[in-house]
Amino acid sequence: MRFSIIIPVFNRPGEVDELLASLTGQTVSDFEVIVVEDGSSVSCEDVVAGYEDRLDVHYFMKPNSGPGQSRNYGVERAQGDYVLILDSDVVLPDMYISEVSKELDADPCDAFGGPDRAHPDFTRMQKAINYGMTSFFTTGGIRGGKKKLDKFYPRSFNMGVKREVYLSLGGFSEMRFGEDIDFSTRIFKAGHSCRLFPEAWVWHKRRTNLKRFFKQVHNSGIARINLTLRHPGTLKLVHLLPTLFTVVCAVLLIGEVFCLWSMAPLVLFALIIFIDASIKEKSMGVGLRAIAAAFVQLVGYGTGFIRSWWRRMVLKKPEFEAFKKNFYK
Questions:
Q1: Helix (H, G, I), strand (E, B) or coil at 37
Q2: φ, ψ for residue 147 (rounded to 5)?
Q3: Model pTM?
Q4: How far apart are CA 11 and CA 154, in angstroms?
Q5: pLDDT average, residue stretch 214-225
Q6: Are 160 and 35 found together in one domain?
Q7: Has residue 186 been placed in a domain?
Q8: In total, how many domains does the chain have?
């Protein structure tokens, strides 16, 4: 068997249903599916059972330990030469596994990943949040989605690894957030090859409202400092841009008390976002929501980064003690 698809899930039976449905339409069938229920209170066992006559699917329930450890649990029970790691909130186009196979046949590698897109049926807010996470104007490029000179670090929503490489590295660490970048970094450090498969993309639903989106990107900012301390030298200028944006916003808002024109840069930035998002999504409604999503994405990440920098680097708190309530419940 060539592929084992690993899906960790926590209280998302509806999304698992959509993902499994998309797997039934794949043009390549040489794969198994392993669904790992991570201590959910709302089980997807019945949903998975409904696909047993159409997919080689296996369901496991375990106590809650976070997505990384649940992926490890699934890989330990996998049979494929490659493991494909997917988040439960993605949906696959019919050609997904075919595109992965084509890339591996043309140029084999040890690890890989693909980009994500917004489905036409997503809500306008979901499309706006997708824009915020992928746009050049919001540093979305650090996620990867186009071939570039820098290394490509696969993300856990759409990631593939040779099973033997995965097991040799011990899989994902105990980190609750940023664990995919930690794993990708360890893949590179061990000397394994890793690249982007640009046509092996997925539809990624992400968060459905700005409050949840803020929490997600805030935790990403926190994780960046944790990753920097685990892997010195990995912090890049682009990782600092949301923090700089956050500081500039604070300064300009204070300056508004004395001069209304101090808000001009933020207004110009909002206008750029509105025009770019409206054109790309062919919707001014998405464009308006994208303004809010862009500010949430940058300020959420920036405040998380600053908060983590203070607790980890100034107060010298250990990783697990500094953010117990966020990640390590």
A1: strand
A2: -65, 135
A3: 0.89
A4: 25
A5: 94
A6: yes
A7: yes
A8: 2
